[in-house]
Write a structure and sequence with these properties.
The complex is a heterodimer of chains A (501) and B (377). Chain A has 501 residues and is an alpha/beta fold. Chain A is built from 15 helices and 23 strands. In chain A, the strands form 8 sheets. An 8-stranded parallel β-sheet of chain A has the order 11-21-20-18-17-14-13-12. In chain A, helix 5 links the parallel strand 13 and strand 14. Chain B has one domain: Glutamine Phosphoribosylpyrophosphate, subunit 1, domain 1 (4-Layer Sandwich). Classes of the chains: A alpha/beta (501), B alpha+beta (377). The interface between A and B is large, with 46 and 49 residues.
Chain lengths: 501, 377
């Protein structure tokens, strides 16, 4: 039998002069890429460049480099293509990966710039003036009615349930199972500290997270894992997951190795069994079916919580979002093609879906044309990397954004894209107890809350530069965006002018 | 229109005078007041709105028009004939003025509605889009639609004002010169507002001068609406087209939408446009907090953000308001039944040397001046 044709991606170099043979690196590697035989011996084939050993080597004796090119340079047949073919020729299987689309598609965020005030309208100093980021998640009516009550004017309109957010940034859906309980706790604590929200994803809600329920969106996905009456009642909002940016049109994949006893109890499935959620919901084959589920969930929660729908950004996203709004959803969560995942076929992740920038612009336009923009809160997600992206997404028309990958990075993730293996050396996307123990929920929560705080401060600076002191004055204000290096069609879809106009 | 240009940010002076007994007085006062603030404008725009100036035509929609050419006038008149009954059509009287040049054709029409057009309009897609079919607002919505159509579709024609028993006189020049040019001193009204303009990045054009109007709403504005982008897109959802590309335009439409069409009280309308900060709202007593919070939640896209002070006029009412951190000045004065609003106290004292009261209005808190009880405009 020939040796595998799949050559290593990375090259691990140990400086044996520096190394003091403490074996910490060997213990830290979740992927078994380092062993000790007299001295530390790397297995390049197993290294995923998660940088855990590099970070924890007390002597700084380890470097991980990209493996020198072993193939003749070829613009059409990239190394990734060749490697995938070798893997599939050996396994006859789909190539599966974690995290979001990493292909070099254009990033529209990087081709938009924001405005600032000079002279005619003064900028506002957020260190000296109030600057408001508060946002409410929930459906709003087009108009309010008032009535006289005891000689005073009181509201006659009863608003749908609204969830208060102190920043327009929430955490995206990541399930317990895909990530560790420690990671879930950290997200819930951070959401509590920051007045934000975390999202259970499709894996149910562990009992230890119940105290944070008012800061948690509970998801109902096609597998219905962990969905019961108490689950719905604990959440601040309920989300029906139709699709995910990383894998539009296909279901969830949690390999049995990650289904520990705790995961199995939370998800209400047998221990060690693969948790495969179906591609469509088996009770939703049309928009009217979706509407029924929306109202079933509203009934089940007695109309006390917003019920939203998460979809992947696909070609016809505007019409779909409009249908969802009309079906009774309180918010629509649009996940662009850069959105992450715990596991997805690489071919799906890298080739399906559209950029969230385009999707948000199209959806916001469509809802306005139909006069129903107020009916839903619009959440944008999928590859939001910094507060600049947040501001741009909001200026395009989103009410708020959700971050997943950025949150994982804050907890220590190094974007090695191996979440699907369950070997995360950082204790984030694994259920192996010796690995999950590495993630201190308190510390990770503080790091996550710091991230939200940092981005919120930056958003306030951006608003101040724009001369406005409330986030709603940026929301949908595309006049404050300009395109750089975009063609006219792209500018039209985004609804923005080119720089200089 | 010639000289049309993208959004024009501007500095400015504003002033307003209101007689609460609806006693009419000459426009000479308002010219005198705005003249004092000459240095706040730069000769690229001035204008006046007078209320109660056409008592003989009090039930007619008075359309003040600016035309680039006779062709645009002819096209507009065909449009008006088709959609209204024109009871009177005449040039707006002017006197030659050395500082006012290149005036467009200035014309006014006193219009009545044709029978049945409102019913037809109510049944139309347009009216449905405006969400008001058949609820009694349709007549005014119909007029709004005609104004939008003229501004949007007829090249070189621009509606300066379209309300009843009121009119707007505006153009390129210093406001005091514009007032003399239009013979504003020869009209009598119970309310006058005025504006002197300092546009900063383009030459002004006649249509771009303040006041901006829709129906009998008029707005004079010192400042810039930094939230213009979203205010405009919000209004589009309700059938308003911001064709003039000037931020002030959205203010008139927002008052029209929130107060006239959606039935919010003037206080609540002002609460939406210059909303209190959340930390203030959080401290309100419960009932008041619920109202203020709901207004911000629902009308967030209508909030005006950026530096502004405004004087808004409409039949029987004058409103003064600034942005919520008061980046532009506004002073209020009162002498017996007359109330004054102005960018500067001196401009009030210029015409009312000994007011009973003069005070600086607070950030975001509106002054709403109405006629005394039982007085008809």
């Amino acid at each position: 039998m020939i040796r595998s044709l799949v050559s290593p991606e990375f090259l691990v170099k140990i400086d044996h002069q520096q190394c003091r043979r403490c074996k910490r690196c060997v213990l830290n590697c979740g992927f078994g890429a380092l062993s000790f035989m007299d001295r530390v011996v790397p297995d390049n084939n197993k290294c995923v460049a998660c940088q855990r050993c590099v970070t924890f080597c007390p002597e700084g004796a380890i470097t991980v480099e990209r493996h020198p090119l072993t193939f003749k340079n070829n613009w059409h047949w990239s190394v990734d293509n060749i490697r995938a073919i070798y893997k599939q020729a050996e396994s006859g299987a789909m190539v599966v990966t974690g995290m979001g689309n990493d292909r070099p598609y254009i990033s529209y965020f990087d081709h938009m710039v924001l405005d600032a005030c000079q002279v005619t309208n003064p900028s506002i100093d957020p260190l000296r003036e109030p600057m408001e980021l508060r946002t409410y998640l929930g459906s709003k009516p087009n108009a309010l009615q008032f009535k006289e009550q005891d000689g005073e004017v009181a509201l006659d309109t009863r608003l749908s349930p609204q969830v208060i957010l102190e920043t327009p940034i929430i955490f995206g859906a990541m399930s317990y199972g895909a990530v560790s309980l420690q990671a879930h706790k950290a997200l819930a604590k951070a959401a509590s500290i920051a007045g934000s929200l975390m999202n259970t994803g499709e894996g149910g809600l562990h009992k230890e997270l119940y105290p944070y329920g008012d800061r948690i969106i509970v998801q109902v996905a096609s597998g219905r894992f962990g969905v019961n009456q108490e689950y719905l009642e604990r959440g601040a909002a309920v989300e029906i997951k139709i699709g995910q940016g990383a894998k539009p049109g296909i279901g969830g994949h949690l390999p049995g190795e990650k289904v520990s006893q705790e995961v199995s109890q939370t998800r209400m499935i047998p221990e060690g069994s693969d948790a495969l959620s179906p591609a469509p919901h088996h009770d939703i084959y049309s928009i009217e079916d979706l509407s029924q589920l929306i109202y079933s969930l509203k009934e089940a929660t007695r109309y006390t919580k917003p019920v939203g729908v998460k979809i992947a950004a696909v070609h016809n996203v505007a019409a779909i979002a409009s249908g969802i709004a009309r079906a009774g959803a309180d918010y629509v969560y649009i996940d662009g093609f850069r959105g992450g995942t715990g596991a997805a076929p690489t071919i799906i992740r890298d080739n399906i879906g559209i950029p969230v920038e385009m999707a948000i612009a199209a959806v916001d336009d469509r809802l306005r044309q139909e006069g129903i923009r107020n009916q839903v809160t619009l959440v944008a997600a999928g590859g939001i990397r910094n507060s600049g992206d947040v501001a741009k997404a909001i200026a395009l028309g989103a009410d708020l954004v959700a971050i997943g990958t950025a949150a994982l990075l804050a907890m220590g993730c190094h974007l090695c894209q191996k979440c699907n293996t369950g070997n995360c050396s950082w204790g984030i996307t694994t259920q192996r107890p010796e690995l999950t123990a590495r993630l201190d929920p308190e510390e990770a929560a503080e790091r996550l809350a710091n991230l939200l705080r940092g981005w919120s401060l930056e958003l306030k600076e951006i608003l101040g530069a724009l001369g406005v002191n409330a986030i709603e004055s940026l929301r949908g204000s595309r006049e404050r965006l300009r395109g750089v290096g975009l063609n006219q069609v792209e500018l039209d879809v985004l609804g923005i002018k080119p720089a200089g106009r | 229109m010639k000289g049309t240009s993208p959004r024009i940010p501007s500095g400015c002076s504003i002033t307003g005078i209101f007689n609460r007994k609806a006693k009419r007085f000459s426009g000479a006062d308002v010219i005198k007041s705005i003249r004092l603030m000459h240095d706040r404008s730069n000769g690229l725009g001035g204008g006046f709105a007078g209320y109660g100036i056409y008592p003989q035509y009090r039930d007619h929609y008075a359309f003040h028009m600016l035309y680039d050419s006779e062709a645009s006038q002819r096209e507009t008149e065909r449009f008006l004939e088709k959609n209204f009954i024109i009871d009177r059509s005449e040039p707006i009287p002017t006197r030659p003025h050395p500082n006012i040049t290149d005036a467009p054709i200035l014309w006014r029409y006193f219009l009545r509605l044709k029978p049945y057009v409102v019913e037809q309009f109510s049944a139309s897609q347009d009216a449905k889009h405006m969400g008001e079919a058949g609820n009694g607002l349709s007549e005014k919505n119909y007029v709004v639609r005609q104004v939008m159509d003229i501004n949007q579709q007829i090249d070189g024609a621009f509606v300066a004002s379209s309300g009843k028993n009121m009119g707007v006189f505006k153009g390129v020049g210093y406001p005091e010169d514009i007032g003399e040019f239009y013979r504003v001193d020869e009209y009598e009204g119970y309310m006058w507002t005025s504006h002197g303009r300092f546009p900063t990045n383009t030459p002004g054009w006649w249509g771009g001068a303040h006041p901006f109007t829709i129906l009998d709403w008029s707005v004079v504005h010192n400042g810039e609406i930094s939230s213009y982008g979203i205010n405009k897109r919000y209004l589009e959802m309700f059938g308003y087209h911001c064709t003039l590309q000037t931020d002030t335009e959205v203010i008139a439409y927002l008052f029209d939408l929130l107060h006239r069409r959606q039935g919010l009280s003037l206080e609540h309308t002002c609460l939406a446009l210059a909303a209190p900060f959340w930390k203030e709202i959080d401290r309100y007593p419960e009932a008041k907090r619920d109202v203020a919070r709901a207004i911000r939640q629902v009308y967030g896209s209508a909030m005006l953000n950026g530096p502004f002070s405004l004087v808004v006029g409409f039949t029987g009412c004058m409103i003064g308001i600034t942005d919520r951190i008061k980046l532009r000045p506004l002073v209020c004065g009162q002498k017996e039944e007359v109330v004054y609003l102005s960018s500067e106290e001196s401009a009030i004292r210029e015409i009312c040397p000994a007011p009973d009261r003069v005070w600086t209005i607070r950030a975001g808190e509106p002054i709403i001046v109405t006629l005394e009880e039982g007085v008809q405009p």
